[in-house]
């Protein structure tokens, strides 16, 4: 079972998503795919930045985000996830907050993080797969 990183979900919004991502997602049963509430927060932060420049585009992205939220099992940052996150973040840069929260959620629920940014998660000790690569690692 997989926890989709924000970059995997965001790829689906592109006019022509990467074929490897589409094939990978279509090959998996929907119940095996999960999303962190943190990713929804990252997407919403991007929407708010967009809203400053283009309110209509922000509304369009927000509608897409609503569909994404309804399409996947969204996992919250619960108490146990936050405790794992605190252990992962101890002595690390604040720049890793969101990635560490996603990793903590994956560890808590025994999920593999699907991400294009393997390096961002490598030191967290979480299982990883890069669906952009073939074969997947």
Automatic annotation (TrEMBL):
Annotated Gene3D superfamilies: 5'-nuclease
Cofactor(s) the record lists: Mg(2+)
Gene Ontology MF terms in the entry: hydrolase activity; magnesium ion binding; RNA nuclease activity; toxin activity
Alphabetical list of Pfam families matching this protein: PIN
Claim: Magnesium is one of the keywords in the record: yes
Sequence ranges assigned to domain PIN in this UniProt record: 2-123
Leading EC class: hydrolase
Positions of Mg(2+) binding: 5, 99
Annotated EC: 3.1.-.-
InterPro entries registered for this protein in UniProt: PIN-like_dom_sf, PIN_dom, Type_II_TA_system_RNase, VapC_family
Entry keyword set: Hydrolase, Magnesium, Metal-binding, Nuclease, Toxin, Toxin-antitoxin system
Key word tRNA processing present: no
Alphabetical list of PANTHER family matching this protein: RIBONUCLEASE VAPC2
Protein family according to the UniProt entry: Belongs to the PINc/VapC protein family.
Function summary: Toxic component of a toxin-antitoxin (TA) system. An RNase.
HAMAP family named in the record: VapC_Nob1
Name listed for the protein in its UniProt record: Ribonuclease VapC
Organism of this sequence: Delftia lacustris
Gene: vapC
